[in-house]
């Protein structure tokens, strides 16, 4: 292995914009059950489904309806 490497011609990390951050939050049982049912049907983990939905909402600039 070399002592030094030349990264001057290296490409940017294509995954840098997809970084995630762990958070803790309170979520209703109804919401969790919904995403778990959807996860069972799609084979996608429910946490990923929640993240996909929240990301979609952010891209579409959706505003929640307050009941």
Automatic annotation (TrEMBL):
InterPro entries: CopG_antitoxin. It comes from the Bacteria. Pfam families: CopG_antitoxin. This is Antitoxin. The lineage of its organism: Bacteria, Bacillati, Actinomycetota, Actinomycetes, Actinomycetales.
